[in-house]
Amino acid sequence: MKIGILQTGHTPTEMADIAEDYAILFRTMLGEGNFEYQTWNVVDGDFPASVDAADGYIITGSRHGAYEDHPWIPPLEQLIRDIHAAKKPLFGACFGHQIIAQALGGKVEKSQNGWGVGLHHYDFDGKEMKLNAWHQDQVVDLPPEARVVATSPFCKYAALAWGDHIFTTQAHPEFQSVFIKGLIDYRGKGVVPANLLETAENHLAEENDNAQLAATVTRLMRGEGIA
């Protein structure tokens, strides 16, 4: 089956040796041989011709805010609504999580909690999972029909689902520690409070639960739900 990766940002050029682009991180997470992939750089105005261009979709992270005024935001929101109406599998991480929530009636804004970076602990229906994060923005108003799949003291709506075909996470299950280290070095310094960067760096050696989230996204893409 074919997965369309809707790329809403690009890896910082200084980190090109870590990942060619965000789409590569998701291909690695799900396995190059498990699906056919096609990337559309929606951040640059490149969109699929129709919702039927792929069997399922992934929306990546981005340095942009879902609420910002960019010409590619409204057509992306409409595409999200079309994917939802067609009940095609859709997964979003970080910005992807936020733009899906916004497109389907929720609200996104800069959180009063500030920056969340590095390894965070989330409660997925009573099961603790450790995933990397890198964000200021959060979903603050729950969209209609969405159900909360995960939460944390820092992020109330940490993962959401619509039916059995849409699943989103504020965390980055595609980010391994080497990528977080790159963000600390090239994106974080002078922007993110130094104490948060230090804490994130101190936890780089800890194991994460990316593989479990990857298995969930794989089931989602194959039409098997997220249970």
TrEMBL record:
Keywords: Glutamine amidotransferase. Transmembrane segments: none annotated. It comes from the Bacteria. SUPFAM superfamilies: Class I glutamine amidotransferase-like (SSF52317). Residues 68-177 form the Glutamine amidotransferase domain. InterPro entries: ChyE-like (IPR044992), Class_I_gatase-like (IPR029062), GATASE (IPR017926). This is Type 1 glutamine amidotransferase. It comes from Donghicola mangrovi. The lineage of its organism: Bacteria, Pseudomonadati, Pseudomonadota, Alphaproteobacteria, Rhodobacterales.
